Amino acid sequence: MPSDSRPVLLREARADDAVPLTRLFLASRAAAMPYLARVHSDEATLAWMTHVVLPGTDVRVAEIPADGGAGASEAAGFVSLDGSGLEHLYVAPGLRRRGIGSLLLDAAQRGGAEELTLYTFQRNAGARAFYERHGFTAVAFDDGSRNEEKEPDVRYRWRRSG
């Protein structure tokens, strides 16, 4: 297990991040939301990451030095923004509760948007508490008809103060 003292670096995503970010995305969702329906294969998820997420949104990657050093690093998490929409924020399951999600969210909040909006599943109590701790407010609840998983979700909004 990585030590808590390894530094976290934020950088812009690159095309060659598709495979590690897809693995992180799938692992994080499985760990945090085991009840969630899998509606796409791993291959389809990789194609989506490669052809939709990375080229179509502003993606920041949190990375840490890999065990063994030698200049290698591993993806610890990522955040994806589409204008004022926070589309994705995922942290590797073994690296949760180390401030990586807060670092990624802070980077999103420091961007140019006056407000950010996002959806998370109503049953995802951990994510809901995380966003609420960071100033997001629930503004709408949906029955699941708007998402592929058919899982009830909640829309959150954050507004820059001052």
Question: Can you put this structure into words, describing what you see?
Answer:
- This protein is 30% helix and 30% strand.
- With 162 residues, the chain is of the alpha+beta class.
- The protein has one domain (9-159): Aminopeptidase.
- The strands form 2 sheets. Strands 1-2-3-4 form a 4-stranded antiparallel sheet, with helices on both faces.
- Helix 1 packs across helix 2 (42-56).
- The radius of gyration is 16 Å and the shape is globular.
- The N and C termini lie far apart (41 Å).
- The mean pLDDT is 93.
Largest sheet: 4 strands, antiparallel
Which CATH architecture?
3-Layer(aba) Sandwich
**Order of neighbouring strands in the sheet with most strands:** 1-2-3-4
Count of individual domains:
1
**Rg estimate, integer Å:** 16 Å
CATH superfamily membership: Gcn5-related N-acetyltransferase (GNAT)
How far is it from the N-terminal to the C-terminal residue, by CA? 41 Å
> What count of helical segments does DSSP give?
4
In the CATH scheme, the class would be: Alpha Beta
* Structural class determined from secondary elements: alpha+beta
Q: Return the average pLDDT rounded to an integer.
A: 93
Helix content: 25-40%
Order of secondary-structure elements: EHHEEEHEHEE
* CATH fold naming: Aminopeptidase
Give the beta-strand count.
Answer: 7
User: How large a portion of the residues is in β-strands, by DSSP E?
Assistant: 25-35%
